[in-house]
Amino acid sequence: MSVIITTGDLKRNYEVIDTIFAMDSHKEGYYKSADPNLAFEGVKNQLKKKCEQLRGDAVISCQFEYRVAVSDSLIGKKQVMEIFSYGTVIRFLDR
């Protein structure tokens, strides 16, 4: 079974295992914008991996925040997209 990632709750009986945190970033070259989808997929994959390590079935009540940083240099601007996330790892009782 694959890990479920949701921003809400699930209508199943479960036990709470732990709270987890993940962060991912995507950097882009000069004159290009960073792709938020790549950073979002990266942070979701980290949440799933941490959930599996804890032998959980899902990560519920996930919250996502982002930050965009731009640096100037002689060549041009460079953009970095960072996404932070946390959620609660659960294990279903009716496995």
UniProtKB/TrEMBL annotation:
Domain of life: Bacteria
The protein's name: Heavy metal-binding domain-containing protein
Organism: Paenibacillus suaedae
